[in-house]
Design a protein that fits this description.
The structure is a homodimer. In chain A, helix 2 runs parallel beside helix 5 (146-159), helix 3 packs across helix 9 (297-304) and helix 5 packs parallel to helix 6 (178-186). In chain A, strand 3 and strand 4 form a beta hairpin. Chain A has helices spanning 28-32, 41-49, 68-80, 99-102, 146-159, 178-186, 203-218, 251-259, 297-304, and strands spanning 53-60, 87-91, 111-113, 116-118, 120-123, 126-130, 165-171, 194-199, 223-228, 233-234, 241-242, 263-266, 310-311, 317-318, 323-324, 329-330. The first copy, chain A, is globular. Chain A is built from nine helices and 16 strands. At the A-B interface, helix 5, helix 6 and helix 7 of A face helix 5, helix 6, helix 7 and helix 9 of B.
Chain lengths: 334, 319
């Protein structure tokens, strides 16, 4: 059969050369002999590159929309509050890269130099990389199948010149597929410290999160712990607490107890979390309107295990002609 | 170079045989000649299979966690309330299949017969299929790369014996990748009525949703309209507040700018999450909720959209 099989199991898979659809494929002999399973040379290259990166943390969730990117961004901000800590934030969500917006870096471009791609620096000690920086417009869709996404992730890990970094935080899309396998495989020789797994309280989320935990066990990725986001809502008007996403099966607390995994913390829903702002040069506006108790604040601080906390607040000053964007301010813990 | 290239662009891609990593691959000649781009025979098989399915609706979102599966399930429930309407719900989220739980069908198994796989029937007129039914335990992770997921989706479309169906609803995972491309490609010859796109009000969601709309335009998939979920919350003590503030005007402004219908806005009701966890229809559990009223109105608009589209069949002239 002189044609390319449609159901190619993939050159690196266990079925390579052995599957029914491999019959007649010119590559069959090579795949069956295991040539396709030879390690990717990029793995060693990435191991070398990662020698200047002390700690690597993956932020995962089986479920979408639970706040992975929000948490990754806050973790990066929080760690970078110490000017002596070098932080890098890598967004490997190729189809839905949220990090540029959440970090207030939309429109920024990546530059190439002799030593590789330069990340976009929000602060001197906080560099960010995302496919979002490579798009001509934020509305451009990245419609790629798995192999092409994997290629991009490999480039991010191998070709970005992160420099000396204390923490590399890797934000991921939901699921247990190409991006996750690639991140783990490409970093295999470089030692990942562990994964932080994000969930929300309801069982529909926990079900997917248990799959993610299963994934971590299968690929031998240590789990730092679980963060439960959207854990109750405190009405800013009347302070009444409501469970928007009721923990019908006990939420993350029960799941972590059952699976013997640390629960790092529970972050309540605060509408102010949903809003991000960035300073435009030359403007500094009073945050009077925003001072006040932010119930989410101490919990983020606990999760990061290092004071003080940052409150990313929602003060928005709009005139009829323009909107002022405000830089996150550092506040003392309440 | 006698080895398999690691960066194989994929045998069906435009770069097949032409990419830098193709140099030396034994398949290079074949790929470059376009042999890999020959249409998959499954496309015709699926077209045949879909002849008994009148309307096909994809439920999409660029963003995760906005309520696609919740909406797909309630669309199915709502349509199936008419006993004379045959409804099929297909879950092609391979890594995170939520539909079995939301429909209260966890633990059910799929059976094979001479005419193919049988969907799991919640009601006589409501059949469901999901990879969730193929797992030995709901906690089993499906850790598959793109090609294997595509194979599963092909099987779902080609091998499931749906029977005579009025509406096939396809629930998708977030993104614009393998699953979405495969669904559109395998159904290419079978005519999809359109896509319903789900979002939440905040700009971080809308950004991903605009990409999904871009995807629909690129693959020439009609857009039935957009649904804005989690559109406000009624605090039981005081009054309404926005949990996910529409800092850029929410779906309303986006739809106006992109000239796409806004099918409706569904407010947050904690009973929705509870119903989903328990596998019950929220429409039945909370018939007076503003969210239920919103769902029903949206379902009606979708039915109206579909009724304007002639199903392909024997009765048509010149279609």
């Amino acid at each position: 059969m002189e044609e390319v099989p449609h159901d190619c199991p993939g050159v690196g898979s266990a079925q390579a050369g052995r599957g029914a659809s491999c019959q007649g494929c010119p590559n069959q002999g090579l795949c069956a002999s295991g040539a396709g399973a030879a390690p990717d040379p990029a793995i060693e290259e990435i191991k070398e590159k990662m020698k200047t990166v002390k700690h690597k943390i993956l932020v995962l969730s089986g479920k979408g929309g639970v706040g992975k990117s929000t948490f990754s961004a806050h973790l990066a901000h929080g760690l970078a509050e110490d000017e002596n800590t070098q932080v890098a934030l890598l967004d490997i969500d190729i189809c839905g890269p949220s990090i540029p917006k959440i970090m207030g870096l939309e429109g920024e471009q990546v530059h190439q130099s002799g030593s590789g791609w330069s990340p976009v620096f929000l602060e001197d000690n906080l560099g960010v990389m995302s496919v979002g920086f490579l798009l001509s417009s934020p509305d451009d869709a990245v419609i790629w199948r798995g192999p092409k996404k994997n290629g991009m992730i490999k480039q991010f890990l191998r070709d970005v010149d992160w420099g000396e970094v204390d923490y590399l935080i890797v934000d991921t899309p939901p699921g247990t597929s190409d991006e996750h396998l690639s991140a783990v495989q490409y970093l295999a020789a470089a030692h990942i410290d562990g994964a932080v797994i994000i969930t929300t309280p309801q069982e529909v989320s926990l079900q997917d999160v248990r799959k993610e935990i299963s994934f971590c066990h299968k690929v031998k990725l240590p789990i730092i712990g679980v963060v439960e986001n959207m854990s109750g809502f405190i009405c800013p008007k009347c302070q009444k607490e409501t469970q928007i996403f009721p923990p019908t099966t006990g939420g993350a607390e029960v799941m972590c107890h059952d699976l013997k995994i640390p629960l790092l913390g529970k972050v309540p829903l605060d509408p102010r979390i949903g809003i991000r702002f960035r300073l435009k040069a030359g403007y500094r506006i009073s945050l009077e309107a925003s001072r006040g108790r932010c119930p989410a604040c101490p919990v983020y601080r606990e999760s990061r295990r290092s004071p003080p906390c940052t409150r990313l607040l929602s003060v928005r000053v709009a005139t009829k002609d323009s909107l002022f964007w405000l830089k996150p301010r550092i506040h003392q813990p309440l």
